[in-house]
Amino acid sequence: MTDPTKTTRQPPSFAELYTPKILTTFREGYGPEQLRRDAISGLTVAIVALPLSMAIAIASGATPAQGLYTAIVGGFLVSLLGGSRFQIGGPAGAFIVLVAATVAQHGMEGLILATFLSGIMLALIGLLRLGTFIKFVPFPVTVGFTAGIAVIIFASQIRDLLGLTLSHEPGELLEKLPALWTARESLSLPAIAISLVTMGIILGLKRARPRWPGMLIAVAAASALVAAFGMPVQTIGTKFGGIPSGLPAPTLPEFTPERVIDIFPSALSFTLLGAIESLLSAVVADGMTGRRHRSNCELVAQGVANIGSSLFGGICVTGTIARTATNVRAGAHGPVSGMLHSGFLLLFMLFAAPLAGYIPLAALAGVLVIVAWNMIEKPAIAILLRSGWGEATVLGATFLLTIFRSLTEAIIVGCALGSALFIKRMSQATAISSHRPYVGNDEADDAHPRGDYHEAEAMNPDVVIYRISGALFFGATATIGSVLDRIQTSHKALVVDFTAVPFLDSTGANMIEGLAHKARSQDVTLWLTGASADIQKTFAAHNLLPPLVQLADSIDDALARQQSNQTREVA
User: Fold this and answer.
1) DSSP code of 137?
2) Beta-ladder partners of 550
3) What backbone torsions phi and psi does residue 202 show, to the nearest 5 degrees?
4) Which domains can be identified in the chain, with CATH numbers?
5) If you count Cβ atoms within 10 Å of the first and of the last residue's Cβ in the chain, which end, N or C, has fewer?
6) Of 92, 87, 80, 20, which Cα lies nearest the Cα of 52?
7) What is the dihedral sign for C-alpha 513, 515, 517, 519?
8) What is the DSSP letter of 12?
9) What order do you get walking across the sheet with 525-529 strand by strand?
10) Confidence of residue 26 (pLDDT cuts 50, 70, 90)
11) pTM of this prediction?
């Protein structure tokens, strides 16, 4: 009978899942005060994003202009269409490793095609409502691959930090380090000085004036030093010829079946990391504001943003945790802030692009070293190492695979190890207790000792009772099955109580089905009691129905009916 006081929760509608947060913000009311807050926060984020976007693009093997294209086009679309009020999109340090490897293997055209394909896949993941599953990546995996990426970012900046001259810098860490050591004699003292000045200003302002845009001030100061003293260091102007004063015309990447197949693994890696990184950033924003983002809407927006970025020659777009946190702290009201941040970056390109030519690469390398250090979640690592061997193993494996193999392998292996650890713990949490001694076995099972003796249940010596507690799934089936398999022909009935079983999978049901056939062959009646409606559906799917088994609401009900059946048989 249905409880009239309980209401059935309806699944969310399409509009509830995919309405961009900007529309929600406007419905709540949007006026001059909200615009003022968004303008201030948007300008603040743009000041942070300006040097970062160029530095990340250069470290990824792209041009500084491509980093700005990504922040302008991709960032605007993320805020316009996204499911988070405060998400800031743009190029992210987490992508440096993957983007650089793709450029080295497939060239810039291959990178742009991979970004376009990744956008399509991200949008499809969102439309298929798979965003919820992306959140199930274990915490040690996210901490491990983030720390691994930070190490690789630092290694990628050693050349510019020290002003080394290399004809070719290998991408793999184990090959990169010997190559850098070989070029040690080309070390540049001016480049080292610029790097140290940049990092010193950033760290000093973070301590003395935390609200000031330390990265922009540091890069501006380093550029001024280079220009004033004519320091012999490489700059954006000497390496890239500066940046253009505007966006290029949109162009579709070149498509051929062979090229799509060739680039697909890179696009898949972009998709996986982009989904994880963007939703993680949205969760951080939720934690800071008490709001809730729409994960599937956010993934669709990330997909459209990557498609848009690729059309303008940009690189991968994702939610950026540091810039999103800056947006929240600056007092943003909603997505308009992110859109204005992109607008301010476009204004910089239109009116101040020539100034970018004076920025020294050593200064941008110093910025990325600080970013890499901040990416390492040191308190989280300490907690995970203290949590036990399981978490430490997942963390260590993900970290090492990220550094020495690939990010995709690291995430796959890390998730597999995390799942195995979860299964092991769930199986240990599932127990079975007997409420009568095992016939022919005076000792209780080591893993699952006998339960308390109940006089009422002992009145019928022909019945043995087991209670299962915890999820009965494939990880626990072997242990539970080995106990239940000890049926003795001296018993007339076996009662298995499911009152404390929240979940039964097909493997567990198949084990119970095998037990039922064995009981029937030995003329033992199998009673299944206390099963929830969902578990009873699983019983029915596996033909666990009368006459193969008997179903009862409780152990007492099964005992009473069994006693009645035995009385009729005697009569």
Assistant:
1) S
2) 527
3) -60, -50
4) 41-419 (no CATH), 430-570 (3.30.750.24)
5) N
6) 92
7) negative
8) P
9) 431-434, 463-469, 493-500, 525-529, 550-552
10) very high
11) 0.74
